[in-house]
Amino acid sequence: MRFQKRLRSFLYFYAFTLGIAYSLSANDQPSTQDNYPPNYPEAFLLGVVEGVTEYLPISSTGHLILVNHYLKLDEPTPILDGKGEPIQIKKNGTERTLTLQDAINAYSIVIQGGAIIAVVLLYWRRIVTILQGILGRNPEGLLLARNLIFAFLPAAILGLLLDDIIE
Questions:
Q1: Which residue of 5, 82, 122, 142 lies most exposed, with the fewest beta carbons within 10 A?
Q2: What are phi and psi for residue 96, nearest 5 degrees?
Q3: In terms of domains, do 89 and 19 share one?
Q4: Is residue 37 reached through a cis peptide bond, with omega within 30 degrees of 0 on the bond before it?
């Protein structure tokens, strides 16, 4: 009974969030510099998506990518400075225009910082156990560190091999 109540609350909240996403994407007005995405409602929505999906056994990053696409925040639209000129950035010795896609990718990375801090706080004792194991003070921590590395390696290897396809 308690699980059903929580599930119902989650589904209402998720439906509400999707409604916000739909209403934001329905606005096809060109953005002005004062209302340039990501603005507060879009940032709030991305924060809610990250917060809700981080604790579920689904990909929070994948959902952020989908919401960014749905809200058309992943487009290569140039970001303008106060004078209305495109902002230029230097990367690897070459200069290029800063785009909305660059900004939203950075935001999507930074927004996950809160989830990382929450995980560190929640699993503090296990992290200390792992560090003690690596330092040779706790055999259980060393075993946990080894198992985490073995669990991580397949995803890391596939990510490196399929990077071009994924991008």
A1: 82
A2: -145, 170
A3: yes
A4: no
Last residue of a domain, one of 104, 120, 136: 120
Secondary structure class of 95 (helix, strand, coil):
strand
pLDDT in tens, 1-56: 677 777 677 666 766 766 666 565 545 444 444 445 578 888 888 888 888 887 77
Token reading at 129:
């156990």
Q: Which two tokens stand for residue 145?
A: 């560190």
Task: Please state the length of the chain.
Answer: 167
CA 156: distance to chain centroid? 18
CA 98 from centre of chain: 20
Tell me what pLDDT residue 126 has.
Answer: 96
Q: Are residues 110 and 145 in the same domain?
A: no
* CA dist., res. 74 & res. 84, Å (int): 21
